[in-house]
Amino acid sequence: MSDLSHVDETGAVRMVDVGAKPAQRRRAVARAVVRMAPETAARLGDLPKGDALTTAQLAGIMAAKRTSELIPLCHPLPLTHIEVDTRVLDDGVEIVAAAETTAQTGVEMEALTAASVAALTVYDMAKAIDKGMTFTVELLEKVKDVGSTESGTRR
To answer: Is residue 5 in some structural domain?
Structure first.
């Protein structure tokens, strides 16, 4: 179990100590895709509950800022930028969330949380007219030293 960063030698969960690590500029990008009937996708701006896309953008931004309250072992981070973009597809909506910080640990959980909550918001707002929706969430990019010549890890 000692190979797991959030588990100590005895098997107990713990928050990783990042105190000795230097603060670095970091960026992560996540994507969610909500699949739905084409008729539903065409109505995302005019649903009974309102504009799903604008509401999803705001929900994603708000969620990223609260990630450490939702995921028990995440460090609270001073986010410097959060962007949530939506794009309507023929059979759904694509949500791309980017989060940035200058900190001692990565910001991928914030990007994933933003994309996930934005997708859940679209789902919630459209569920009354489409019972068959599904969604997926994935990490697209995780970069350390944003702006330097070394770009870090990309998925």
So the answer is: no
